[in-house]
Amino acid sequence: MAKFLLKRLLALMGILLLVSLGIFMLVHLLPGDPTTTILGPNNTAHNRAVLMQQLGLNKPIWSQYFLWLGNIFHGNLGQSFITHQTVTNTLANAFPIDLELIVISQVVALSVSIPLAIASAKKPNGLLDRVSTTTSFALLALPPFIIIVFAVLIFSIHFHVFPGPGSYVPFSQDPISNLHTMILPSLVLAIGSVVIYFRLLRGDLITTLQEEFIVMARSKGLSNRYIMWRHALRPSSLSLLAAAGLNIGGLVAGAFVVEFLLAIPGLGYALVNSIQQVDYLAVQGVTLFVAVVVVVLNFIIDFLFTIVDPRIARE
Amino acid sequence: MSNEQSSIAFPSTEELSGPLLRVKDLRTTFSTPRGSLTAVDGVSFELGRGETLGIVGESGSGKTVLARSVMGLLPRSNTTQTGSILFEETEIVGAQEATLREIWGAKIAMVFQDPMTSLNPVVRIQRQITESLRLHTSMDRAEAKATAISLLSQVGIPSPAERVRAYPFQLSGGMRQRVTIAIALACSPRLLLADEPTTGLDVTVQAQILDLLSSLQSARQMAVILVTHDLGVVATRTDRIAVMYAGHIVEMASTKRLFASMAMPYTQALLRSTPRISQPSHTRLIAIDGRPPDLINPPSGCAFAPRCTYATDQCRSERPPLRTAPEDPTHLFACWNPLQTGNAGSITTAKGEN
Amino acid sequence: MSAETAPLLSVKDLTVSFKKGRQVVQAVAGISFDVYEGETLGLVGESGCGKSTTGRAIVRIEEPTSGEVLVAGKRLTGLGRGELRRARTSIQMIFQDPVSSLNPRRRVNDIVAEPIDIWKTETGDQRAATVREMLEAVGLDPDVAGDRYPREFSGGQCQRISIARALVMKPKVLICDEMVSALDVSVQAQILNLVEDLKAKYGLTLVFIAHDLAVVKNVSDRVAVMYLGRLCEVAPSDDLYALPAHPYTQALLSAVVEPDPEKATSHVTLTGEPPSPINPPSGCRFRTRCPSAQERCASEVPELREIAPRHQVACHFPTLRP
Ligand SMILES: Nc1ncnc2c1ncn2[C@@H]1O[C@H](COP(=O)(O)OP(=O)(O)O)[C@@H](O)[C@H]1O
Ligand SMILES: Nc1ncnc2c1ncn2[C@@H]1O[C@H](COP(=O)(O)OP(=O)(O)O)[C@@H](O)[C@H]1O
Ligand code: SF4
Ligand code: SF4
Ligand SMILES: [Mg+2]
Ligand SMILES: [Mg+2]
Question: Which one in A30, A74, B181, B291 has a CA-CA gap of 20 to 30 Å to B195?
């Protein structure tokens, strides 16, 4: 098992290295000249050249990459030459907001989809099953960003049930209004996940419940509830887990869209701002950080796979 | 193996009397998309305490459905059951699930055909044994674990204290079947339903498992219903045999009597089509032509008539009732033209040739 | 069938190894046997002993690690692709699972004609006539069965279709791997009888692989017993079952159940399970379970040797005839 995880970890390191290279190259292909942004369009060529040298932009691209990479390993992602904030600082401020959004949304998504899937799978084609399957199918047809736009329009802007754009308050300042602000975006984010998780888990549960080992469990006199939670749920949650892994990217993207719409100063907001200002160090830093987070989460999911199904690591 | 102590007291023989199980006119019908399918049709039998009944028949004859009906284990959504199954004092047909759950695992247990599919692949052996102990007895966690280990050693699993932590995929097929037997025996049931417990296993493992079942059974005064399609498996391991065809019991007798003077052409055909090592090589087998009937549209007369060499017009129009042999009231058969004693099997000829 | 004539199929020191991670599974560890024209050689042993791998290596579905396979004196091993494919028509294999070995989307006629179509040996009416003949030979009505799909047939009938397909190129050798193991006794008997009839009709030579000792005895002229990748004993069927000389053969036979209550319940001498082929025991591979094992068995590999006419045993201390 340890060997399996070590292998996965090494593979992920490799992936991260590739990702960092990709991000670096991509950002350097971004249109716009950072010296123009910093010095304004009318400055002298000499001043520009000096700045280029200060920023290290005149060095060969390879050495720039390795310099950047070396700094990252020292925890130094650079300093924005526009806001003069360190990128690390930006991340430290913005990331907890995304984390909060995603955690709340996933807790909500799992606590809705699991019981719903269990209840539906108990009586396939029962009333509850038909209603929830149809509803989820309808929601599946709606792209998430449309749900987000409509939810914000309806609940924040039209009905004022939730605070509108720009009313974000940090958790440390006022937990209650912070949560109040975050509920709508989290719920909106959760919808997509609920639909996916529910459909996969329901399908797999129905298949699992027809397995011989379920009959065996019944023949021991175990209660249906115990059989459901102890015998059926775990072997049925592999697709759910796989989907959760695939979902992470979408979730992050969704969080960014919500942040942008509601002016919540999370990573997405920071990223969009940096792009607009051609703040290439900040763009690089934030993107790399997001990539690391996604990769780490995927690693955690790989680990969960081995817990849910011991055969995966040992065979 | 039998002298090993389990922490559960076995019921002593004296306190028990009367049959353990009384099945009367049991009929199990499934509603299927093609129509209703009667998989068990008017089956009646009794089973004494500690007795072993073999149930044999081709696949699709209703053996599994019968075994699961006896336990009340079939899904209720598409199943209809009529008749009566009296286990000790409890009526199984139509009983509440709560009532059945007190019997399941505690008084009646089942060993399934394929241990690969009947063990939960992601649950450790330990939990799969202890969960019924914790449910049906007052054992605590540690006691249940100790009992699980002792059960594994009783079923002949080497280093049981380590194996108890294993997952099913870490064991071989034979070991897995031993585990399912340990699970079934955990709460010392009075009745064990073993549904093809050795089908698909190697002969050597089959012999080990069958020996194990017999020794555990006699140590525990446990009745066993041994379901199989292999007449060889039941020949030396049962007190009585019921032969099933198309959902009916078509012949039932003590094992000795059945093999010595079978009355049903079907039983004879089954026996004659089975190759044996006591026959010389290239002995022509007497195959049964055709296939068992479709249970959704069963034939009106004897269900075996289309394949029977002795069939007459009466066979094709009238269902033969189950009746007793004149010489032996415990020998039942359902046939209009029963075989004469001596005409029965090919045992005598086979022996002569050997 | 006499030992003087040259064998039709000859397997010489066949070895098949699989890589499993860094370990090597020696599924077949140097076995040799001959099969004579018109003969049926049975191959028995517990599951995992390498029977299927042997069969697959003979028809080269599995690439042998070393050793030779000769058909009518011609080497099959080491042939190039084209030659191999041509040579394969003279040797066909039938598998255990009749349903999954047939393409569900093709009609029975086309399934049976598949080898003809590959080799373009026949077309039109001639092709149709051959298919008819084959279907009739295996006991299916060509008018009823020909245009149907495999799913409309039972397991036994699907096995008949596989046999028809295997025979359509008029092979000399047929390798049957557990071909009746998935079938009910009644159907099994039908197929076994069919195999006997077809063998006589087409002059086939058979290697019949199965784990059921009674089935193997019924169809075989000679039987080879396999354990953990090696042969233990090879002898004419009736001899082998009456006077087994190898302790493993004896143990296997003692475990067989017979449909006869008078036959005393077996006293199985064999306990436990075969060891892993990744790290097999030194010397005699059976020694960890052998009741007669002695020191010599651990150090010296017993080679197959003749202890009676046509009766070969690989054991240092075989039970010799009285
Ligand atoms: N749950 C079910 N729904 C519908 N038909 C079933 C069900 N279970 C079994 N059957 C049918 O009942 C018949 C008897 O099956 P079974 O008892 O499994 O036979 P056996 O165990 O003797 O091989 C078969 O025709 C089978 O298709
Ligand atoms: N493709 C393969 N890769 C790795 N191991 C294999 C493969 N095929 C068979 N084996 C191993 O080789 C041994 C012999 O297998 P097999 O020939 O299928 O035995 P049998 O047919 O006698 O049951 C077994 O231990 C099996 O696990
Ligand atoms: S009743 Fe007739 S058809 Fe049925 S088994 Fe007896 S002889 Fe055969
Ligand atoms: S060689 Fe030795 S260990 Fe092997 S079978 Fe013979 S007696 Fe047994
Ligand atoms: Mg069955
Ligand atoms: Mg095989």
Answer: B291
Interface test with chain C among B63, B176, B203, by most C beta carbons within 10 Å: B203
In chain C, where the domains are located: 244-322
CA distance A123 to A213: 19
Residue B135: list chain A partners with CB under 8 A: 220-222
Tell me the mean pLDDT in the region A133-144.
82
> Can you tell me the distance from the alpha carbon of A301 to that of A294, in angstroms, rounded to the nearest whole number?
11
Kindly state the percentage of chain A with pLDDT values over 90. Answer: 23
User: C–A contact (≥3 CB pairs within 8 Å)?
Assistant: no
Nearest to C64 by CA among C74, C73, C72, C76: C76
CATH number of A87-314: 1.10.3720.10
The complex's ipTM?
0.89
Chains that touch C (3 or more CB pairs under 8 A): B
**B91 φ, ψ to 5°?**
-85, 125
Mutation choice for A interface testing from B120, B130, B135 by most A CBs within 10 A: B120
| pLDDT per position as a tens digit, B208-262 | 899 999 999 988 899 999 999 999 999 999 999 999 999 999 999 999 999 999 9
Cβ-in-10-Å burial (0-12, 13-18, 19+) of C8 comes to buried
Query: Whose CA is closest to atom 6 on ligand 3?
Result: B335
Query: Is B75 a residue whose pLDDT tops 80?
Result: yes
Q: Six-digit token pair at A209?
A: 């419940």
Q: Where are the domains of chain A?
A: 2-73, 87-314
Residue B2 is predicted with a pLDDT of 41
* Inter-residue contact B76 to B162 (CB < 8 Å): no
pTM: 0.88
DSSP letter at B104 equals B
Pairing of strands C173-177, C205-209: parallel
Q: Looking at the complex, does the CB of residue B58 fall below 8 Å from at least one CB of chain C?
A: yes
3-state helix, strand, coil in chain B (%, to 5): 35, 20, 45
